[in-house]
């Protein structure tokens, strides 16, 4: 099984190289891209079963041992996120193929998009299976370089402007991360996560706290944790629909994944949980209040993305096996559902010529299928039972209630309020865009006149046809969101096992044993 691990990163990179060679052959690039991601999906599923049954796998690349070598590490958490990422990348790729065919690749130029897309995937996969901090940094940089290209596709003024902001923020985060790695190496003489966890207790608590805060700051920017989330609502909505969908679903979760490793494995004896609780509460509340104040669908979803990062930080701050397992389940849920919603909004934009809820109306009669494709993930994200959003939130609240402190009760109330406001914001958008009749304008607009000054409230675009493959890709993702509910029991069990193993330190001990044997 260990031979499969490097292929998770190698196959997308090889696919990207082949796509560059065949830069003008669209069909060849499509086939290579689909096969590359499908292969990673199969390998990820095989590894998930293997590590869930037999424990984590560690691979020293080219036989070079630590501290000189690079160790790739796959446990249940890493394998699960690889599988979910591959599913999302495949679905969005199919969506982008349909968009490119319909628009003559205006927004997704074939010579650029497919290589950059596979490189983005390779960076994400590398980050998930990195066994040391520097390789994690390399994974971040690979995906960020690709994201710089993808976020500015089309070279419009708005995309270049927001792309510059995204690049500057990402570079600041990368500099902080690199500085933190240097500090960790200077203090401990290693960047390998196993060795860091073993040696961290030797440092004074104040030094541990400084290192801890440095890493958290770098990862919080990448995860869009409040107040470091200012860049996200303006950056994501301007990109092409496929790019926005994959960014919203995946990129912030790489930052959350890094925080999981930091909190559960590197700084076990250095507790910043209260700080994380306060940050989680602020992220949930401020993010969803921003969503309620928006009139443009992609901006509404961008702010809900920020607010729901707060649930994940909330789970990590509880720091019990149940809470970490529930957080992992919620990450899986959010990646799938958030991506699906952005794909649905991409279809709305093509059908209605706008994503402003002040302008879009009458879609229930004109596009009933689209109404369903938006409604199901919307109520799921809002946490309506019996969907996976409700299951994930209930598991988090249950973990907090078992701790039972007053702060936990406050966080539960904040989480419930955030869920209600999420449902309100998304259902208000659904009601205005789908249920409002074409001739219903004056009275309704007077009730929501306060949204007239919201950013992009008057946005309009060209109406375009919706290729069947775009609808099929979105419907497929909606089916996956439903599957998260139907198979919630087995999936939650896997996530809870991952949470128990991470918090108990089992994965680190097994990884150390494998390295010693090698």
Residues in β-strands, percent: under 5%
Note the overall shape: globular
Helix count? 21
For the largest beta sheet, what order do the strands appear in spatially?
A: 1-2
**How much helical structure, as a percent, in the residues?**
over 70%
Radius of gyration: 22 Å
Category from helices, strands and their pairing: mainly alpha
Low-confidence stretches: 506-518
Number of strands: 2
Main sheet: strands, sense, barrel: 2 strands, antiparallel
Distance between termini? 15 Å
Mean pLDDT: 87
Compressed to H and E, one letter per element, the order equals HHEEHHHHHHHHHHHHHHHHHHH
Q: How is this structure best described in words?
A:
The protein is mostly helical and about 525 residues long. It is about 75% helix and about 0% strand. The chain has helices at about 5-20, 25-55, 75-105, 110-130, 135-150, 155-190, 195-200, 205-225, 230-235, 240-265, 275-290, 295-320, 320-350, 365, 370-380, 390-405, 405-435, 440-445, 470-485, 490-505, 505-515, and strands at about 55-60, 70-75. It has a two-stranded antiparallel ribbon. Helix 3 runs antiparallel to helix 4, helix 15 packs antiparallel against helix 17 and helix 16 packs antiparallel against helix 17 (about 405-435). The radius of gyration is 22 Å and the shape is globular.
């Amino acid at each position: 099984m260990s031979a499969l691990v490097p292929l998770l990163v190698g196959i997308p990179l090889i696919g990207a190289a082949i796509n560059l060679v065949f830069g003008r052959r669209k069909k060849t690039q499509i086939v290579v891209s689909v096969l590359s991601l499908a292969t990673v999906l199969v390998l990820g599923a095989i590894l998930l079963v293997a590590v869930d049954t037999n424990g984590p796998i560690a691979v020293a690349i080219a036989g070079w041992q630590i501290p000189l070598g690079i160790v790739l590490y796959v446990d249940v958490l890493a394998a699960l996120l690889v599988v979910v990422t591959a599913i999302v990348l495949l679905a969005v790729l199919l969506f982008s193929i349909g968009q490119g065919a319909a628009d003559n690749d205006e927004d997704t130029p074939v010579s650029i998009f497919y290589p950059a897309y596979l490189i983005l995937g390779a960076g994400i996969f590398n980050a998930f299976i990195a066994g040391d901090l520097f390789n994690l940094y390399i994974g971040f940089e690979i995906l960020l370089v690709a994201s710089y290209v993808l976020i500015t596709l089309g070279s419009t003024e708005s995309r270049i402007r927001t792309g510059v902001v995204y690049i500057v923020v990402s570079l600041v985060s990368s500099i902080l991360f690199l500085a933190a790695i240097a500090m960790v190496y200077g203090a401990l003489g290693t960047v390998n996560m196993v060795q860091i966890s073993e040696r961290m207790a030797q440092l004074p608590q104040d030094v541990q706290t400084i290192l801890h805060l440095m890493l958290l700051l770098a990862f919080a920017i990448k995860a869009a944790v409040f107040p470091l989330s200012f860049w996200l609502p303006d950056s994501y909505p301007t990109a092409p629909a496929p790019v926005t969908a994959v960014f919203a679903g995946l990129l912030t979760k790489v930052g959350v994944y890094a925080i999981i490793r930091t909190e559960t494995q590197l700084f076990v004896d250095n507790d910043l949980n209260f700080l994380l609780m306060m940050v989680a509460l602020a992220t949930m509340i401020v993010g969803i209040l921003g969503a309620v104040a928006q009139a443009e669908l992609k901006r509404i979803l961008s702010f809900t993305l920020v607010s729901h990062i707060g649930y994940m930080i909330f789970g990590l701050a509880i720091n019990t096996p149940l809470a970490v397992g529930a957080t992992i389940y919620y990450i899986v849920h959010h990646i799938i559902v958030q991506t699906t919603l952005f794909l649905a909004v991409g279809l709305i934009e093509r059908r209605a010529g706008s994503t402003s809820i002040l302008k879009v109306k009458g879609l229930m009669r004109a596009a009933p299928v689209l109404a369903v494709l938006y409604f199901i993930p919307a109520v799921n994200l809002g946490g309506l039972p019996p969907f996976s959003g409700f299951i994930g939130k209930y598991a988090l609240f249950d973990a907090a209630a078992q701790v039972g402190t007053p702060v936990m009760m406050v966080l539960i109330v904040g989480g419930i309020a955030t869920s209600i406001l999420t449902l309100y914001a998304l259902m208000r958008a659904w009601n205005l865009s789908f249920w409002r009749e074409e001739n219903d304008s004056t009275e309704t607009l007077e009730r929501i006149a306060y949204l007239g000054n919201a950013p992009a409230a008057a946005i309009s675009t060209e109406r375009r046809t919706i290729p069947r493959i775009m609808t099929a890709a979105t419907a497929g993702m909606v089916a996956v969101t439903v599957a998260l509910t139907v198979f919630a029991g087995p999936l939650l069990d896997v996530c809870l096992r991952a949470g128990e193993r991470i918090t108990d330190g089992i994965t680190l001990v097994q990884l150390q044993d494998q390295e010693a044997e090698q």
